[in-house]
Design goal:
The protein is α/β, with parallel strands linked by helices. The chain contains 6 helices and 8 strands, in the order αββααβαβββαβαβ.
Length: about 190
């Protein structure tokens, strides 16, 4: 069985996998409308067996200091595979009680009309997960949704921080931010501030 420990070897391997499978150099327009000399296609890694395992180990490592957490989740689509992988490995790290949730970009117009899906109870302490953080907009949208349910966001964990303002956005809300890696770990310099 593969190693289930987040250590320097796992971190180095995740860097290698991101460089090989997710990092694209060129000219790209980001969701924010800004132009960038690189793009991270996070789902190329989060939706692979090796990438999902490495990321889940890193997430679980960050969650270890927060035994009060009842659930992990985030905005669909970036968070979906990370949530699933984290829940799959959580029992091997003493967190078989952990639950997951996903935040839709907008509430369903049919059925229960849910904005947040999953077994999330009001008052729960949660961690927000995402693949890539630029300004933090996706995670902030998820935070708003779960706080509206009465949940307390204990921390935000992302696979990769582009170093373009997300840390400041979470600091302004008083929420600890824990990226597994930054864009500099991939040997790429971040964009200059807008």
């Amino acid at each position: 069985m593969a190693d289930l420990t987040w250590d320097d070897a796992a971190r180095s391997r995740l860097i290698d996998v991101l460089k090989r499978d997710a990092l694209r150099l060129g000219s790209f327009t980001l969701a924010s409308g800004r132009s960038s000399h690189y793009y991270i296609d996070g789902r190329k890694v989060t939706l692979s067996a090796e990438g999902a395992r490495l990321i889940a180990l890193g997430v679980i490592d960050r969650l270890a200091a927060h035994p009060e957490l009842a659930a992990v989740g985030g905005l669909t689509m970036g968070a979906d595979p990370i949530v699933g992988a984290t829940l799959a490995l959580a029992p091997w790290h003493g967190r078989g009680d952990l639950r997951g949730f996903l935040v839709r970009k907008q509430a369903k117009s049919h059925g229960m009309g849910n904005l947040v899906e999953g077994p999330l109870a009001s008052g729960s302490a949660v961690a927000i997960l995402d693949d890539v953080a630029t300004t933090g907009g996706s995670s902030l949208q998820a935070i708003e949704a779960v706080e509206a349910m009465g949940c307390k966001v204990a921390l935000v964990v992302v696979v990769l921080d582009r170093l373009e303002g997300a840390a400041d956005a979470f600091r302004a809300k008083g929420i600890p931010f824990h990226p597994l890696l930054t864009i500099r770990d991939l040997g790429v310099e971040p964009l200059a501030p807008a």
